[in-house]
Amino acid sequence: MTGNDAGVMAETARACEWRLATAQAEGRAPSVVAAVVRDGRVVWDGGRGELPAEAADVQYRIGSISKTLTAVLVLRLRDEGLLDLGDRIGAHLDVPHGADATVAQLLSHTGGLAAEGRGPWWERTPGELRPELADVFGERPQKHPAGRRYHYSNPGYALLGALVERLRGRPWAAALRDEVLLPLGMTRTGYATSEPYARGWAVHPYADARQPEPTVDTGRLAPAGQLWSTTADLATFAAFLTAGDPNVLAADTLAEMRAPAAAPEPPGWDGSYGLGVQLLRHDGRLLAGHGGSMPGFVASLWTVPEERIGAVVLANATSGPNTHGLATGLLDEVLRREPTIPEVWRPDPAPDPELVALTGVWYWGTTAYELRLRAGRALSLAPAGFASLRSSGFRPEPDGTWTGLAGYFAGETLRIGRDEAGAVTHLDLGTFVFTRSPYDPAAPVPGGAHPDGWR
């Protein structure tokens, strides 16, 4: 079953259908379903194999995509002022292990905690075997010093789920339902199955045979991988991850989640991790999303926020179908055949004349920079004529200053310097002085300008 009601061209739909059919056949999966969302709406979706209902409405287990939803809950707590990302988890929870890891380190898998839960394979055994947080950890829970390196940790997300429960005073799943799923309209996403749903299978690697996989309640580890969802719901979530929703999480906070927070592993890297979000370099673009796997299921969700597009793939086999390759391939097909159309430029209805007057060329020493005014009183500053890590956007603050958002100037404060009469004399950016002409003698350049001037 495939659909094209929302609007890609026929040749694009055909290419997407071919990729889907190939992934299902070569991956030997009982079923594979997929969707592409663009500008907030599904533009293509399809399914292949044994499907009990329309592809978009069939639930599959999404595994570690659950982590991204947990991260959204934690960032909501931060935005409400109930915690700081630099807080030690032990400041909020009486935890048996990992107390010195910060909230940000747990979100980015840099807390140094073990990758897997205690005891038998946690994804195939009931959560009842690990009823308390102490039961989640094995003999060596701390594998690396906190903050030293990236080391993926499912138990770390068990701690984050417990943090949500402590600060909200109710179960993680209830908080997720009321604060994220229902506001976004994700009514087919939840802790447990709801018909129609796909059954999970292990497919024999060398024979066309299969056997059912167990489907267990993972208990304390649920925030790391418990959830079930559909391509329709995850397409909604992908759209949210590209644009935000003020009822759930602001776009600025989502951008913070997408910033790399884990050091890359040597010798090179094509991926990293933010705050609950996997990051991937692919075909000259930076993708953000997450993969997932549980016994009987694999899943992928990838977005290209700058191009307002995302892809979701779900399959019901433990291994075999390359959901990651299919998701990125679907993005490739749509973006190659139907490039993203830029949003319509419109003039600012009421630009601030003083800020307009600030725009143009400023000099840091002898290097020319261009200051531009953006929407909402935001500014951008970049060296004229070449790319540099010293390029940045700046967010306006209530006190009349601006805060840097990227590169060298991320977090630094930009101020307007004035003389006693109130006239603008310079810009101060983290103590760097920018002037309208190189080393303007009338501006307070540290060290001053040579009295003989240019010669």
Automatic annotation (TrEMBL):
UniProt xrefs under SUPFAM superfamilies: beta-lactamase/transpeptidase-like (SSF56601)
Keywords of this entry: Hydrolase
E.C. designation(s): 3.1.1.103
Enzymatic class: hydrolase
Gene3D superfamilies: DD-peptidase/beta-lactamase superfamily
Taxonomy, superkingdom: Bacteria
All residue ranges annotated as the Beta-lactamase-related domain in the record: 22-327
UniProt entry tagged with the keyword Acyltransferase: no
Name of this chain's protein: Serine hydrolase domain-containing protein
Record organism: Streptomyces millisiae
